[in-house]
Amino acid sequence: MATTPIVLERPMPNSQNYFYIIGYPVCYATPTKQLLPVESELPIGLIQGIDLDAKGRYCITFKGHKKFVLTAKKVLNTWTNPDNIPVTDLLATDGYQLDTELVAPLSRSAQFTELLATILPLKAPLTTLPSHYIVVDCEFGWLFKKTATGQTINWQQTTIAGAHTSIYQLSALGFNQTQSTSVYFNRYLDNPYFLLAKKLTGLRETGQTLTDYEQQSNPVTVLRAFIATVLTPGLPLVFWDQRNDLQNLQWLLAYHYQDLTPAEQAIITTPIQVFDCEKYTNQVINRSSNQQLTTVHDLPLNGVAGLLNIVNPKQHNALWDALTIHHVMRQLAAIRATEPTILTAPQRPQPTQIPSLTKAQHVHQLRAAGKTYREIALALGISISGVNYILKKSATTE
C-alpha cells in the first residue's frame, strides 16, 4: 500500500494554493478548482517524486533539479493513491479539475524556448550589496480569453505561450548608495487578454484619456522605453524576488522580440547582473541559524518592511514597492554591518547571603520585641542570668 503522497497542497500567502503532483508541473487552483500551471515554476520542469525524509519533511524532486523541501506545517493537504487510480480521478473526488494536457506549456515551440533562453541572461549572482543600482518591480494581471455563447460573453483564464499572467505595471528607480538618481520609470501595459478592470485601473492611476493610455501602454512602446531607461545603463538590477518578476520580464521581451530594433535586441540579450533582496534577507536572518545553507524563509516584502518600521502607503503598486525594496535593503545592510549580540548561557541566580546575628544581637532583638528574660532564655537556650548579663553589660557599655 502506498504511504507517501502523490499530491501535496501548499498554502500560499495572498494567492491561490500550489499543488505538487507527480508527473505534472507545479499548479495553482483557481476559484472554480481548475488546476493550472504556475508560470514562474515552469522552468524547473515536471515533478518526479514526493518522499518523506527522516525528519518527516516532504522532499519534492524535479527533473534535473535538486530537491525542494517542505516541512509538515507548510503542507495543507496530501493525497495518497493506495488503489493506483488515475490522478485526475483521485483529485476529481475533491472537485479539482486536472487537465491531462497540463504538460503542454512545457513543450512550447522550440524556437520560442530557444529565444527565451537568450533574453536577459544572468552573470554570476551578486552576493554583496551593489553601491549603484536600479530597483525593478512588477505587478501582474491574469490572462483571459473571451468566449461567446449566443448573447452571453464569458471570460475564461487562458495560457499564451506558456504564460497565464503578464506584466501589468513595470517600475524602476535608480539609486547611488542612499541617493536617488535620474532613473525613474513607471509604466502600465495594456493587453487584450486582461480583464476590462485592469484597463480601468490603469486609466485611474495615470489620469490619461483612453486614446493616450492605449498608446502609452502599448507593450512594445513600454518595452522600448524600459530598454532605453533601465537596461542601457548596464547597472545591476535589484529585485525583491527575481524569480517571478525576471521570468515574466524575460517572457514579455521574448514575446515582442521581433518588434524591437536590432540595437534593442542586442541590449536584451546582453548578460545582466542581478541582486535578489529576498535572498539577502535570508542571509541576514540566517547568520544566527544552525542551518544557514538550507533555511529559506520566503518572506513578503511589505511584511519585512513592517518589521523594520518602514510603512509603504501603497502596497502592491510597483513604483511604491520598488522604493520599499530600496529602503528595506539599506536597513538590512545596516543591520548586517552591526556587530551582533552573541548570547552566553543563562546563569542560575546565586542565593543572597544574609549575615547571621550574634547571640548578643539576638538577645537585644528579642528584648526590643517585648520578650521577657525567661522567654528570651528559652528561645536562645541560655540561662536567665546569661540574658541579664548581656543586657546589663550592654547598658554599662553605653
From TrEMBL:
<protein>
    <submittedName>
        <fullName>Helix-turn-helix transcriptional regulator</fullName>
    </submittedName>
</protein>
<dbReference type="InterPro" id="IPR012337">
    <property type="entry name" value="RNaseH-like_sf"/>
</dbReference>
